[in-house]
Amino acid sequence: MRTDTIVPTRLPWLGLVLLLASCTPSLRSTVQTDGRLRPPTSAVEHDLQKILDKHRITTAGLGMLVDGKLVWAQYHGDASPGVPANAATRFNVASITKTVTAETALRLAEAGELDLDESLGAYWVDPDIAGDPRLQSLTARTVLTHTTGFPNWRFFRRDGKLAFTRTPGEAYGYSGEGFEYLARAISNKLQRPFPQVVRERVLEPAGMQHVVMEVRRDGLRDVALPLDDEGVAHRVWCRPNGGCRGEGSYSAADDMLVTVPDYARFLGMVAREESRNAGTPFARGRVLVDTGDDAVVLCGDGAGIDCPRAQGYGLGFQIIEDEATRIVGHGGNDWAEVTLGYIRLPTRDGLVIFLNAPNLRGLAAMPELVELLDPDSPFPNQYRRWLAHDLAQKAAR
User: Is residue 300 pLDDT above 80, yes or no?
Assistant: First the structure.
């Protein structure tokens, strides 16, 4: 593992055995004092290393923010054969991509270039839903709050086509399709490629110099290469079934490549923007939609976690409120990556954890890592539920 104060240790890159942990909570550290995060001690760093080794995590980047700035980071494993992970390593962060898309939309709205409540059908109509009157109710707000009425992805449907399962704005339903639709509409409205808009509105103002949203393989360096369950490495933006994203394509909902320091800069910027916009229509930290069984904390599940005062989705971010603080963040979960990034308000303390590993290994490691770094975090049991669900599905096959 590599830190900013410890000489990096090279660790094996390939693992052939899938090692899954039990779902019992790990030992809690004493990282926090007076409710604030503190960089971990050397003993806690050693425990973090043990967790990453136990779950055979291929590559990891961990970071802690205090007062909106990255104050500690560690890197584990090799990004690619012979290249140890470091601060320049780009990780595929899966659905965390949505937070950058959401921030782009909010900045456009604040500048008067996007109306959150205008029908997106004025700028883009997907052929699959042309003629459906519910299209007129599809807005940027319904996308950001996951109330579009779309499925997560159209390819989950038997016919492979996009369709409304309910009227937009009616109820929560997590959807990557909604974010792709919003990006297409923004691009058409502004007559500029969406990745260019993201760079202008978010990446450059935040100082995020190493983000890659478009697929461009030539000259791409410093990327954590994904491994499947058999230990076979795959190209970036490719999946074990052989499917690869096309050169020049992009996703507004998935597959963004970003470093730990760059995403920490993003969270710091979001915290500043939220403080500036508190009480306005562009506030990021208000719960607008109840997510039901998708909630981070399932109250009364016997996990010993206090029930938040409010939780759900705000405008593009997961929000968890208690009496004194609010958490603004998002997670990511795909076949070869498990990720999490969040920041607390008003303290502006937070975590960034990017795991590049076969999915079940990442889901098993994530809660143990979070509990060591932030004992009061509400997120660990959500990842344990995802792990239990996926293990049950695997056993049923």
Answer: no
Give me the residues paired with residue 65 across strands.
70, 350
Cβ contacts of 228 within 8 Å, gap of 6 or more? 234, 240, 335, 336, 358
**Which residue, chain included where needed, has tokens 């599940």?**
301
Q: What is the mean pLDDT of the chain?
A: 90
CA 395 vs CA 64, 364, 391: distances in Å: 36, 16, 6
Give kind and range of the element (H or E) at residue 269: helix 260-277
Span 289-304, average pLDDT? 86
Among candidate residues 48, 93, 164, the one with its CA nearest the CA of residue 340:
93
Closest CA to 181 of 261, 120, 246: 120
Those residues with Cβ within 8 angstroms of residue 371's Cβ, 6 or more apart along the chain or in another chain: 25, 26, 28, 29, 377, 380
Please compute the mean of the pLDDT values over residues 365-371 and round it to a whole number. 98
pLDDT at 303: 61
Q: Give the phi and the psi of residue 46 in degrees, each rounded to 5.
A: -65, -40
Burial class (CB in 10 A: 0-12, 13-18, 19+), 20: middle
Q: How far apart are alpha carbons 215 and 259 in whole angstroms? A: 16
Neighbours of 279 (CB within 10 A): 7
Within 10 angstroms of residue 111's Cβ, the number of other Cβ atoms is: 9
Q: What is the pLDDT of residues 52-66, one digit of tens each?
A: 999 999 999 999 999
